[in-house]
Structures are given as C-alpha cells and as structure tokens.
Amino acid sequence: MQTRRDIFQAIADPTRRAIITLIALQAMTPNAIAEHFDTTRQAVSKHLKILTECELATTKQQGREIYYQIEINKIKEIDKWLNPLRKIWETRFNQLDEVLLTTKNKRK
C-alpha cells in the first residue's frame, strides 16, 4: 500500500491520536472504536482509513469483523524523531533544576 500522507499529518488530528491510544491497548472493530466518540461511525471510518494509509494502523479479518490494531514500527518512527528533542528538553529541565537548587541553597 502506498502511503498517502505523512505520519505526522495523521497524528496531528486529536481524534486520530485518541484512536491510536484505543487500538494500542487492544485491536478493535470500527463500531467499538466509534462508541468512544461523539461522532458518526462514518467519520471514525475516515480517520481509520487515514491511519491505515499512513501505516499507523493495520487491519485483521476475524470472521465477519475487521479489527484495527496499532502498527508499532510506525510509532517507533515517531518516537525516533521525538527522542533527540526529548533529550534536549530533559537537559534543559535538569539545568533549571540545578539553578533552582543552587539558588535555594544560597538563601539558607
């Protein structure tokens, strides 16, 4: 399947992020996913289509039902991109903690 969109465009939508959270916990049918949202099943299906096209979700047929599940390797791509930024933020927060601790100790 050809990826239609960038995965970051897919996760930019809050509903799609919520769907990702749901199917990360367990594979779910579109109807089960739609029960968690105050929107139509068709709207949820459109979000699922985008997630599938971006390869963030895969489908698995079980009998007459189609289950959506998370594609963990794509989530790892997102994490790989975020990790260097996380390290920068953590370094800055650690530096801030040191400054605050030093300032607090000087006041004593």
Question: Which SSEs are present, and which pair or pack?
Answer:
Elements: H1 7-11, H2 14-25, H3 30-34, H4 41-53, E1 57-62, E2 65-70, H5 72-107
Antiparallel strand pairs: 1-2
Helix pairs in contact: 2-4
Overview of this protein structure:
The protein has 108 residues and is mainly alpha-helical. The chain has five helices and two strands, in the order ααααββα. A two-stranded antiparallel sheet has the order 1-2. α2 (14-25) crosses α4. The protein starts with 6 loop residues before the first helix and ends with a helix.
How many alpha or pi helices? 5
Order of helices and strands: HHHHEEH
Report the C-alpha radius of gyration, rounded: 20 Å
Strand percentage lies at 5-15%
List its traits.
single chain, about 110 residues, mainly alpha, two-stranded antiparallel ribbon, 5 helices
Q: Concise description?
A:
This protein has 108 residues and is mostly helical. The chain has helices spanning 7-11, 14-25, 30-34, 41-53, 72-107; strands at residues 57-62, 65-70.
